[in-house]
Amino acid sequence: MSQKITIEPVTRIEGHAKVTIRMKDDGSVERAYLHINEFRGFEKFCEGRPYFEMPSITPRICGICPVSHHLAAAKAADDLQGSPAPRPAHLLRDLMHMGQIIQSHGMHFFELSGPDLLLGFDADPATRNVVGLVGAAPEITLKAVRLRKFGQEIIRILGGRRLHPVFAVPGGVNKALQPVERDTILAGVDEAIEAVRIGLGIMRDWAERNAEDIRKFAVFPSGYMSMVTPEDGLELYDGDIRLVDRTGSQLEKFPGGSYLDIIAEHVEPWSYLKFPYYKKMSFPEGVYRVGPLGRLNAVSHIPTPLAQEEFKTYRAINNGAPVENTLYFHYARLIETLFAIERVRELCADPDILSTDILNTRRDYRGEGVGVLEAPRGTLIHHYKADETGKLTSVNLIVATGHNNWAMSKAVDSVAKTYITGGEVKEGMLNRVEAAVRAHDPCLSCSTHAIGQMPIQIEMVAPGGEIIQTITRD
Amino acid sequence: MTAKPKFAMYWAASCGGCEIAVLNTHEKILDVDANFEVVFWPVAMDAKYKDVEAMEDGSILLTLWNGGIRNNENAEMAHLLRRKSQILVAFGSCACEGCIPGLANLSPLNEIFETAYHTVSTENPQNIHPQVSYPAPEGTLTLPTMNPVLKTLAQVVDVDYFMPGCPPESHQIAAVIDLVIQVVQGKAELPPKGSVIGCGDSTVCDECPRTRNVKAITAFKRIQDVAPLDPELCVLEQGVPCNGPATRSGCNARCPRAGAQCIGCYGPADDVIDYGARLITAFASVVDAREPAEIEAILDGIPDPTGQFYRFNLADSLLRAGKGAAMSRPNAITSGGKP
Fold first, then answer.
1. What local confidence, expressed as pLDDT, does residue A464 receive?
2. CA-CA distances (angstroms) from residue A125 to A121, A131, B300?
3. How many whole angstroms separate alpha carbon A119 and alpha carbon A137?
4. How far does the CA of residue B86 sit from the closest CA of chain A (Å)?
5. Do residues B189 and B225 make contact, with C-beta atoms less than 8 angstroms apart?
6. Measured CA angle at B168 (ends B166, B173), to 5 deg
7. Which DSSP category does A366 fall into?
8. pTM as predicted
9. Rounded to 5 degrees, what are φ and ψ at A418?
10. What ipTM does this complex have?
């Protein structure tokens, strides 16, 4: 009998979403939708606020990656008031950003998706969580907690607090790094690398045992986007943006400030979250993926040695072509974590990192500014316009998870169709549908800065429209 | 062996930082697991709405609710979890006082949508807005309905305790968790209903190590114009608008200690009826001016009074509050030791 399945809320993700699965009469899937449920209206209510307050207002878009918004806002404000930050300030911001990447990626791999990977998609939902993980693998879990702590400590040392930091201001940062603080950070590097290597081992074992799932789980082509170094290497804090096609060939390389020439956003009536795409190819042909998988498909190399070694293995998966398997987001995420830790060591070794030349107080006020960086989940764009008194007249935010909106919807539809093919719908099947969302590590707080909320709900709907069966975990 | 008391945590219209702050208690989170059965916590485990509906009323001992009430789904969950919980805590600034998302209450909903779906990067020639109910080819698809304004939790359901902060500091969370565990073990008593918990009972200034010289200022400045601040002196007396004088203590003056101004995330201090009014009084007291024109020039240094004075608590303020919301809280109970 035909039905509608609702999964509500989607769990072990950051925010609120629901999935509606529309069924055919034979019990197979007609189409599955991912709905982003909430909306808060930041773009509107930031109007009238002074542009220089944005580094403290926009972190409240997202408590998972407040540093990303804090720094993107500061970069946009640098640009708007025409005061480029001195090099030491950029290094310090970059260092804070790496702390953010480490804690966010670490939390996702071990605490949100870890239960699926270590305990299994079909494990008992009652224990398929981080508490279950503590029971099953206490040593690994402890290492994961310490990895997160390492990232959070970097943020706290620089920004005074681990969440919603106060650090970057237009033109630079408000506090220099002390030698003893630098040494504290450096002292944690080796242990953090060790923790990621354990994670990579888990990932490799898991990939071997689950080759079948990886092969058929939401594998599809798309474009890919990442910030890059001048040599097209991986870069997360400052650089041009590179967009490649499904074969990995470059479509565009552009400075963040000209994003409006390259990308646009499409609106669908069934989701509060918009759908970005490459303008020249229009929607939906021009869709692309961002975040760990998108980035490692859009760069040519990683400019730190340990991560580069792992990157070679990653790129061999599809013989040098972009990796299309959604489940390899997890692998790419760990490689990036390794990069971020190595980058922490590089930054701390830079002689400028202790400099007190951290603020540019000159102004060449332009009244408009764009700040772009690679947040843990992908490219983050803040674009402000202000009047002559500094009050904002227009705010545009394209957040990392937004770029992946199409890909998440596609993945949900694809996984639902692959695993629900008629007959009894089992809980493990629905968990895989959720895992399709989870793999992207969506940050629905970020996404719903404009409107919404995201636990996931999955509804199975009959051709007639009524919800015939609501499958819940028991 | 008696069953462990049940614990839930839910995230409504908020940023997720409150959940991260709970995770940031690190080892303490294991105490939660040891002493409670976690029955609902979407970010961390796989229970669904239906599972909560199936629970007996009052069967959850403690629910930490973070986030404001922005849509009908938030409101329904608030009513559901109120019914299922013995102790419902408004956890964090969004739940207590609306926080930054409460600034949306300055604009009508249609303007908020209009802005979001017609930004400079949005291609929307057909003027599509998301629909609460949309007839897709495969059947009707639904989204929650947005409320005209963002409400605090207490404006929608009865709340037992308020725990301020954006986010609440981890040491305060740990102290509150310890307290509830002691209550469960019969070693302590709960504070009076309606108490503000996990915080201090004075102002951020009282926790701030910076020196006040009662120095008058002749202009307000932006922090990037004076940074780096003198690390020893009061931020406000260096001319940077600092919200410490009206803001509740409990964070240990984190931002002033880190070289920045307090922006008021712990909400109004104990005896403050209107946060903005108290702050304006405090700012006025450091201004050195006699002539109206002089005063006006100094006040021009605060270009966005609403954002300065009501950044975190507009939704709960006398300006935009539901009836008497700001008046509904008795005295604060400090549950944790200060660091």
1. 58
2. 9, 11, 57
3. 10
4. 23
5. no
6. 165
7. -
8. 0.89
9. -70, -40
10. 0.85
Q: What is the CATH number of domain A86-219+325-359?
A: 1.10.645.10
DSSP track, A334-348: HHHHHHHHHHHHHHH
Residues B161 and B136 in one domain: no
Give yes or no: residues B210 and B272 share one domain.
yes
- Residues near A68 by beta carbon (within 8 Å), at least 6 away in sequence: A62, A97, A100, A373, A375, A376, A380, A400
Q: How many residues does chain B have?
A: 339
Alpha-carbon gap, residue A302 to A307, rounded angstroms: 6
Q: Please report, rounded to a whole number, the percentage of residues in chain B having pLDDT higher than 90.
A: 54
Q: Do A57 and B311 touch (CB under 8 A)?
A: yes
CA distance B63 to B85: 6
Interface touch A267/B130, C-beta < 8 Å: yes
Q: A233-277: per-residue pLDDT in tens?
A: 999 999 999 999 999 999 999 999 999 999 999 998 888 888 999
Q: What interhelical angle do A305-316 and A291-298 show, nearest 10?
A: 90
Q: Is residue B106 part of a domain?
A: no
**Closest C-alpha to A167, from A178, A156, A151, A153:** A156
CA angle centred on B256, ends B287 and B262, rounded to 5°? 65
Whether residue B176 sits in one domain with residue B29 = yes
Shortest distance between the Cα of A194 and any Cα of chain B, in A, equals 20
Indicate if B76 and B127 belong to the same structural domain.
no
Residue B75's domain comprises 6-100+149-184
d(CA A247, CA A64): 32
Q: pLDDT under 70 in chain A at which residues?
A: 1-2, 12, 38, 162-163, 443-474
Q: Within an 8 Å CB–CB cutoff, is residue B139 touching chain A? A: yes
CA angle B251, B256, B258 (to 5 degrees): 95
Helix (H) or strand (E) holding A93: helix A87-107
A44 with B115: Cβ contact below 8 A? yes
A181 and chain B in contact, CB less than 8 A: no
Token couple for A73: 């806002």
A438 φ, ψ (degrees, to nearest 5): -55, -40
- Give how far B12 is from chain A: nearest CA, Å: 7
Residue reference for tokens 């400590």:
A153
B123 and B155 co-located in one domain: no
For residue A446, count other CB atoms closer than 10 A to its CB.
30
Instruction: Tell whether B77 and B180 lie within a shared domain.
Output: yes
Total structural domains within chain B: 3
Find the helix or strand (DSSP H, E) in which B141 lies.
strand B139-142
What pLDDT is recorded for position A122? 85
- B35 and B157 co-located in one domain: yes
B210 and B84 in one domain?
Answer: no
What is the Cα–Cα distance from B186 to B177, expressed in whole angstroms?
Answer: 14
The nearest alpha carbon in chain B to A390 belongs to B303
Has residue B107 been placed in a domain? no
